[in-house]
Design a protein that fits this description.
The chain has 205 residues and is mainly alpha-helical. It is 74% helix and 5% strand. The termini are far apart.
Length: 205
């Protein structure tokens, strides 16, 4: 009987801990005139760290309603939108929040990183690189930003080389087609076309 009671108490305690963030977020959002911006922001960060993303959005929004000039709250809400669910609507909301944070504080590094991350998710690496270079100009030296810029430049370079290789292959196909040959019929260095065998010497780099 005692063991069963102890087990129930443990389950109740765990449930209480998981719901605490949600209850606090709702309560403080309803009574934000009685709380400070810092109270709401700290609550939002706590919810975010615990994985309660919907509650974090509520708390960040409440903080913004108290003081709409704090860039960090917009960045936090943008992060919460992405972590909550990467839907088109949430990504758009995150984008808006990061841009608002930059408008409030153009030296805020985390806002640029969030915006660049969004463009990377959309496979727009050139735009992400543009954002990071802008961040470097506005925020000054940053090892993290320089490292990300180097990674994106390498990605773009690799993509360009791949595209160039494909284009060269297409050009070769066109030239061979004009000669009545087909790359699909290369066998042991011999091009075969409608029963006629053509031999050529190929140099591979």
């Amino acid at each position: 009987m005692k063991k069963a009671l102890l087990a129930l108490m443990i389950i109740w305690a765990l449930s209480f801990g998981l719901c605490a963030c949600e209850r606090d977020a709702s309560k403080q959002a309803d009574n934000n005139e009685q709380t400070t911006w810092q109270d709401q922001y700290d609550l939002a960060i706590r919810c975010l760290s615990e994985g309660n993303y919907e509650e974090a959005i509520i708390a960040f929004t409440a903080a913004i309603e108290i003081d709409s000039k704090q860039a960090s709250a917009y960045v936090g809400r943008g992060n919460a939108y992405i972590l909550s669910d990467e839907t088109e609507e949430n990504l758009a909301a995150a984008h808006s929040n990061y841009e608002m944070a930059i408008a409030l504080d153009e030296t805020y590094e985390e806002a640029y990183l969030g915006l660049a991350r969004l463009y990377t998710k959309n496979e727009n690496t050139e735009k992400a690189l543009e954002i990071l270079n802008q961040a470097l100009l506005k925020t000054g030296e940053s090892d993290q930003i320089r490292s990300l810029i180097a990674e994106l430049e390498e990605t773009i370079k690799g993509s360009e080389e791949s595209t160039e290789s494909v284009e060269q292959g297409q050009t070769l196909d066109e030239e061979l087609s004009e000669m009545g040959l087909s790359t699909a019929k290369l066998c042991d260095g011999v091009w075969v076309n409608e029963g006629i065998r053509y031999t050529s010497t190929f140099v591979y780099e």
